[in-house]
Amino acid sequence: GAGPRKGHIKAVSPDMQRKLLCLYHEPISTPSKSAQTLVNELKLSASALLVDELIRAWILNCFDHTEKPQGYAAYFGASFMSHSCHPNAIWSFAE
Q1: For 11, 31, 36, 50, which has the most beta carbons within 10 A of its beta carbon?
Q2: How is the chain split among helix, strand and coil, in percent rounded to 5?
């Protein structure tokens, strides 16, 4: 296929970008070649570095949302707990 056309993929708002970047991801100073290709091929207005960081945050913080069609979602509370340095869960076994 020709790939997505402008207007067919909803843009991620600056506020949502800021929230995603609050979630755990390794900081980077140079964008990957893949992120540069995405920006060039899709003619994105965002920098390749921003796109790369958003993708990294998404990959490390998304959860299964639906099976058919397969979908994922980022839940901020769960993502923060999942990467907290403080204990946030207790395992117990009832006999």
Answers
A1: 31
A2: 40, 10, 50
pTM for the predicted model, two decimal places: 0.69
Maximum Cα interatomic distance, the chain, rounded to a whole number of Å: 59
Residue 14 preceded by cis peptide, ω within 30: no
DSSP summary character for residue 86: S
Q: Give CA–CA dist 51/8, Å, rounded.
A: 18
Mean pLDDT of the chain: 81
Q: How confident is the model at residue 38 (pLDDT cuts 50, 70, 90)?
A: very high
Angle formed at CA 53 by CA 52 and CA 55, multiple of 5 degrees: 65
Give the residue carrying structure tokens 């506020």. Answer: 15
Nearest Cα to 74, choosing from 66, 85, 64, 84? 64
Q: How many residues does the chain have?
A: 95
The SS3 call for residue 17 is helix
